[in-house]
Structure formats: structure tokens, C-alpha cells
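User: Fold both of these, please.

Assistant: Here is the first one.
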Amino acid sequence: MSVKLKRKEVVYCEINEKYILNVNGKEVIAFHYTKQDPEFDCYEGDYEIIDKEKLTEEEQDEVMDFIMEGI
């Protein structure tokens, strides 16, 4: 009798990037978090701007666009 065993491996990829940005003379820190689960072809992404009250809504959108372009 022969028994063959297969081992299933699930690999997750998590990345947390830190950006120090100068937006119109205002320095802010932003983080971009990405999580990938290739088994289920599932991706999550989120970003956070520290001290975002320093920025206008338009500047916040520009920061988000900059971060998301790097994906």
C-alpha cells in the first residue's frame, strides 16, 4: 500500500510602507498597508495620513493618489 501526502501551504503577503512627504511646504507622514491572499485572489489596501488636519481635502486626495500609484 502506498500513501501520498500533499501539504497545502497558504502564503500571505503583508506590506506596511511609510512615506514622509512634503506637500506644499507641509511635512506629513503617511502609511500604506497592503495585504494579499493569493489563494483566494483577495487584496486589501488602506492608507493613513498622520496629521492630516494640516492638509486641505485636495492635498489629502493628492497624497492618496500618489500612494495608490505605487501599487
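And the second sequence with its predicted structure:
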Amino acid sequence: MQTYAWRGRNNRGEQIDGVLDAETEDAVAGQLLAGGVTPVQITVAGASLSAPKQDWWHALGARPVSMEDCLVLSRQLYTLQKAGVPILRSLAGLQASTAQASLIALLEDIRASLDQGRELSAALARHPKVFSPFYVAMVRVGEMTGRLTEVFQRLSQHLEFELDIRARIKQALRYPMMVVIAMAIAVVIINIFVLPTFANAFAGFKTELPLMTRILLGFSSWTLQWWPMLVAAGVGLVVVVRGVLASPEGRYRWDRLKLRLPIAGPIVLKATLARFARSFALASSSGVPISQAMTVVAQTVDNAFIGNRIEQMRDGVERGESISRCAAAAGVFTPIVLQMIAVGEETGELDTLMVEIAQMYERETDYSIKGLSASIEPVLLLLIGAMVLVLALGVFLPLWNLGQAAMGRPG
């Protein structure tokens, strides 16, 4: 992480400057735009001098700050801000009341940044692995509008929804994954230990193995012979896939493909649109202009394809088009949602209806996740049936033929 010196203009056209710690110049520009500042010049001022330093051995063994920790921290900050406790005293109290080393280091660095004159949003932005760009942008909005207490409350609700969705998906996929792993282990054990024993026995009787058994044995011997190359190819494939997904074009194509998957695609789409609607309502109700709110939300929906559609909506709004028309052109909303957006735009209650849209998509996501196991079961049964058939033909046919050969009968 480096320190960047920047100069820009605010919404009133006034020239302002300052310094920010970030990974790249694009990250600095994103933070400034999210805060309503148009950057004019961004230059590297040097390495970040106030980056948190920690012994490498303790850092290796320390548990990182998770999303659950961030949720608890947001709730605690909301309670303390609501009670009127100053932010520095709040952070000091939270630091003294926790025993987690990584969280203590995080709070200590945030306090040090505030002591150096940084804003809270800038202090949080120094930890991108803990606080998302949306989280940082909303804290910055809370600082600008004086509604930091409300922002922390809504951020805690937002994180709670994200954690609930992830937990439900993991719960729905736990049983299918255990079954698939168990079957894969069974196939490996049979190919390595069982079938070679049949091969030796059949060699003594000078009897030819069945076709399916020969196929399984051939696959087993090929795997044992070439496993270093297979491991290297697997590692290379992972590196290539990660490189492709790290590029903007690759990430865009993958996120678009996720939405078209047979079972998971609709769930991903509904969860992403629920995140968009709630984030948009949160940003808009906090006093952020519509176009700026869409810019922030587009960067935080965690889907490049949907983010691109939101940016198209923002461009249409900036051209003077209505939000409902831009939403219809995006092609990702259902007719009833488009109707609710149009009504909210006409009545001036867009924030309220966006919350209702988020709740509707959340209910549909919850219903789809509950039916995820039922949707996967037919596919899982077909997969298990095919594997059992292959193993049965590969194991029991040799047993039958071995018995025939032992009795001197033709197989």
C-alpha cells in the first residue's frame, strides 16, 4: 500500500487536496468519486508510513478479521454512536474489550489514523480486506451528511443479510458435497487397491478381464503413472483461471455466465439484485445524489455484469432519462419491479419502494435457497447412479467371471 497525494474539486467547484493510502491510483480515484470529489491530479507520495506492522510469526497464526467480526463491530459502533460516545473513545473501548489479536491491531491502526487527522472513512479504506468499498463509501457519506449513526445501523443490517445468504447456501450444499466427496474417495480406493487384486487373480487363471474392469484398470494405471503431470496441469489450470478472472474482461464473462447456470444462476441473480436495491436505498436515503449512488452501488454488487448494467442506468439518468426507463433498458428486472420503480419515481418514495424491492428479492432468494437441495437431488441421484453402475460392472463382473474360472467353466 502506498500514500497518494491528490488534488481535486468538490461539488461546489472548490479546489481541495489531501493524501490517501491505497493500492493503486484507480482506488484513490474511486474513493474520491464516491465522496463527491472529482480528482484532477493523483501522484505517488511514497510508501505508507502508518501501515500496521506486526511480527510475521504472530501474523501467520492470527485469525483474520472476518465478516462476522465486521458485523459485530458495526453494531457496536452504532450503539456507541447512538449513545453519544465520541468515535475515538468508542474505538478505544472496543479495543480494550476484545481479545482477538487481528481485531486489536485493526482498531489500533484506525485510532492512529484518526489521531493523524484522517477521516474515519479514510482510516477504514486502509483495510480493503476487511471493509468493502461500499462500506467505506457509506461511512464517508455518513460523515458528510452527519448521519453516521444511521449509516452504521444500516450497514449492520446489510452485512447480516450477506452472512445469512452465505450460510444458507453452505447449508444447502453441504450434503451434496459430502456425497460427491465420499463417492470420489470410493472410486479412488477401488481403482488403487481392489481392481489390481482382481487383475493379479485373473492373470493366474489366464482369463480375460471384463471390458468395464479393463477400462477402470487402464484409467487407474494411467493416473498412477502420470499423476505428477496431472497435478502440474491442475495447478497450471488454477493459475490460468485466476489470471483470467483477475482481468476485467474475464471477470465480466464469468459473472455473466454465473447468471445463466441452470440451478444457481437465478439464485445469484436474485441475491445480487437484492443487494443492489438495498444498497441503493441505503445510499439514496443517506443523501447521496442518484448518479453518485449508482456509481457506488455498481462497484459493490460483486458482479461485473450487473455492475455494468447499473452503470448504464447511471449514464441514462445523467442524460435526463427516468430511472424506470433506464431500469427497463437494463433487462435484469422483472415487470413488477419495474412497475414499483416507476411508482416510486412518480410519488417521490423511491427509497421506500427500493427497500420493498430488496425485501421481495430477499424472500425469493430465501425460497430458492430452501429449494436448492431439492433441485440438486435429481442431478445428484443420476450422478451417484452412474458411478454405482460403473463400479458394479467393474467389480462384480470380475467376481462372477472369477468364480466361473475357478470352477473351470467358461466365463
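Residues 1-49 form one domain.
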